[in-house]
Specification:
single chain; 349 residues; five-stranded mixed sheet
Length: 349
């Protein structure tokens, strides 16, 4: 009897030890005697994936795909919000919500085909079909519509997508507004039929018919009239230049702003791995880190999706993203775009 009790006790102790070691291994923590570091940020987003169903697919313009998604789990959203979408290959891309926030349980996005892009839009056009499941993360909004008695909206091409819900909201609020909408040609400009109902509030400027939009009209705006613009980088730069001094200008970018010629080399210590890598002025921290740790996750490479967010244990960060909150910037960075403001960074990698 005593022998049986002893065997049972030893078996129980072994099981508990195995379980404890298993938890430690699963967490990525070093084993005895080194102390465990906290779980790294990357790959552990608190923003869960929601399975949505593609219930309709349309082509509102040449080279533009419109998708309507449905799920009982889709959260509320406001004009200016965008989604993280996980494509079948695992790539993560961001698209503005262009439907009606009042249409609960249903989202609408639009994707412009970019033949010489990084592949996300080609995959979306080829593989996202009606009836397929498309995982999305809850919307984020870095382009919110602030309450105002009047607005000036400027959109270029697919940049009309975040503006559409704003027009509906501004109209419902009784605000005075105008929209200047440019594109390569009428055939390439989505949602023209929907915009037609707003009459002369909307000015459509196809480049092959009328050249570039005349932004001098912005010079007549009152100082309290906010300008909202989404489109190609040159258009947004021109809008900033044309708006009167003191005018609130809100921009939505889905490509990183030009970094300029101030990039400098720096050193990165990978604390968990015990390695040191040199980051050249002409490369990203992500590129340099993946030379040593090729399994480091990433996706958009433009500072939007957050996949390559990592904790910084020491050093000063030069943040060049448009995603992280002020709190997150205190101790983490996006490796794909941000750099070091000091000579050395220490990462929890």
């Amino acid at each position: 009897m005593r022998r049986a009790l002893t065997v049972t006790a030893l078996a129980g102790a072994a099981w508990l030890a195995k379980r404890a070691i298993g938890r430690r291994i699963d967490s990525g923590s070093p084993l005895w005697p080194l102390p465990a570091l906290e779980t790294p940020v990357s790959g552990y987003s608190a923003r869960r994936w929601i399975p949505a169903l593609i219930v309709s697919r349309a082509e509102p313009a040449d080279g533009v795909l419109s998708l309507t998604l449905e799920s009982a789990e889709l959260p509320e959203w406001a004009p200016g919000a965008h989604l993280d979408v996980q494509l079948p290959s695992g790539l993560v891309r961001q698209y503005s919500l262009c439907g009606d926030p009042a249409d609960r349980g249903r989202y609408t996005i639009a994707v412009r085909l970019v033949e010489d892009g990084r592949g996300g839009s080609r995959e979306a056009h080829a593989q996202l079909v009606e009836g397929a499941e498309l995982p999305v993360r809850p919307p984020r909004n870095r382009f919110p519509l602030v309450p105002a008695p009047s607005y000036a909206f400027v959109a270029g091409g697919i940049g009309i997508t975040p503006v559409l819900p704003m027009l509906r909201a501004a109209t419902a609020a009784g605000a005075d507004w105008t929209l200047l909408y440019g594109g390569r040609s009428r055939a390439s400009m989505p949602f023209l039929a929907e915009l037609a109902r707003y009459g002369d509030r909307v000015t459509v400027v196809p480049e092959d018919e009328a050249g570039l939009p005349d932004l001098s009209v912005l010079g007549a705006l009152g100082p309290q009239t906010p300008v909202y613009c989404c489109g190609p980088g040159p258009l947004m730069a021109a809008v900033e230049a044309a708006a009167p001094a003191g005018t609130p200008v809100h921009l939505e970018r889905f490509a990183p702003a030009a970094a300029g010629g101030d990039a400098k080399p720096f050193t990165v210590e990978l604390r968990r791995s015990g390695r040191v890598v040199e980051v050249a002025a002409t490369e990203s921290a992500l590129t340099a880190v993946r030379r040593e740790l090729p399994n480091t996750p990433y996706s958009c490479e433009q500072g939007f999706c957050g996949t390559c967010q990592h904790r910084v244990l020491a050093g000063d960060i030069d943040h060049r993203d448009t995603l992280l909150t002020d709190g997150e910037r205190e101790d983490s960075m996006l490796l794909c775009v941000s750099r070091a403001a000091s000579d050395r960074l220490v990462l929890d990698l």
